[in-house]
């Protein structure tokens, strides 16, 4: 990732030890601190406090809050105003270059997954083939699969009608169905690219995306098992409630009983894919008709096609990461081809084209329907992209002022695990702001200078530690808390006993897994 020019390259003893900063590929960069160490520390602390106050108390959009905080930190740390603006702009642009394209393509793929009926097909197939005892495990798998390509809020709204209907039809307590599905969705959101949080953390600290993806998937398995089906047994005892009458039927397009609740996001696409109506008439003697039933079922891609599309970018990026690990010095045409296909932008781009062709064919979508689906995918992620870019600008200001060096030195001299520090920083911002994305981009910016001295596996673990901290202790300042409460019809106390606890379990189990992995690397 490119960096803004710095004030010079003074000797190390003149820099008070602030010499090693993060750069792409693990290289180092020497900068002149923009002021005394005390001033840098005060500026950083005040900047973070300003960001938190703006978001939580004044309800300012995180993009604006991060921008104001970053510029305030730079000027407060002694960086000239024009250089502060340049630094922020460089960081914003570099982050958008590396992350923005991936988020846009990923959003388009997710929208095609919903509108074509591919998501419906995956869910229906897995649920239909599951026994009553296996349903919690199946729902965890569904949550993880839906969570791979989709943003959390979209996946949540898509899963809610499925959770409610499965609970009603199977006569299984709803918490045994809801908790595993929510854990699968939230775990993917925290640990696995191409979600915005992990993507921006990977970009900010210079981690290898393929390695991070592999580690994230491996870490997600025990997290989902422990915080999902196993915890669901306790959650069902603590909160024994009936399934809410939130959706009359999947695809009805209605929300709560008063019509004010959320609607099924797949409804519009499902209606658009209905084929021509056919009549099924049951005749009585003398030609009298008993009834005429009109059949018009929505079309959808096959289960195999849907699964291939979901896993395609994962396989391509993992293949490239495995090649780098097993044969780092290999050369030849196959290496170039594998590295090209495994490049994140190419891998997700191929998956998006696959969805445009095969999901559309299977779902009976014409060209105009595909174009509308792709167009509708981008507006919802505009705010996320701005937050991510502002987080990159904030990170670059920390580096160019020398604050990043102060943080790196303090952590290294303390003897505390870098992974634990990353988790704590991310968790604190998460609890204060209620936003996993803000927690991730802020913590990644703060921890970026430390990543320069870490190996490739350690840098990926640093990303996962930040991701684990970003979902810690969801409470009343988190939009996800209120979404889950409203959808499942729980009280505030019941939401704390279920949703808040499962988010804490994801966070803590994820941290433990990262720390254990850190011992071996």
Name its key features.
521 residues, 2% strand, 21 helices, two-stranded antiparallel ribbon
Description:
- The protein has 521 residues and is mainly α.
- Helix content is 68%, strand content 2%.
- The chain has 21 helices and two strands.
- It has a two-stranded antiparallel ribbon.
- Helix 4 packs antiparallel against helix 5, helix 8 packs parallel to helix 18 and helix 17 packs antiparallel against helix 18.
- It is globular.
The percent range for strand residues is: under 5%
What is the terminal separation in angstroms?
A: 25 Å
Helix/strand order, N-terminal first? HHHHHHHHHHEEHHHHHHHHHHH
Shape: globular
Structural class: mainly alpha
Number of helices: 21
Helix content: 55-70%
Main sheet characteristics: 2 strands, antiparallel
Q: What's the helix and strand layout?
A:
Elements: H1 37-56, H2 62-76, H3 81-115, H4 118-128, H5 135-147, H6 152-170, H7 174-191, H8 196-205, H9 209-238, H10 267-272, E1 278-283, E2 289-295, H11 303-326, H12 333-342, H13 344-363, H14 367-377, H15 382-401, H16 403-414, H17 418-433, H18 436-447, H19 456-469, H20 479-488, H21 492-520
Antiparallel strand pairs: 1-2
Sum this structure up briefly.
The protein has 521 residues and is mostly helical.
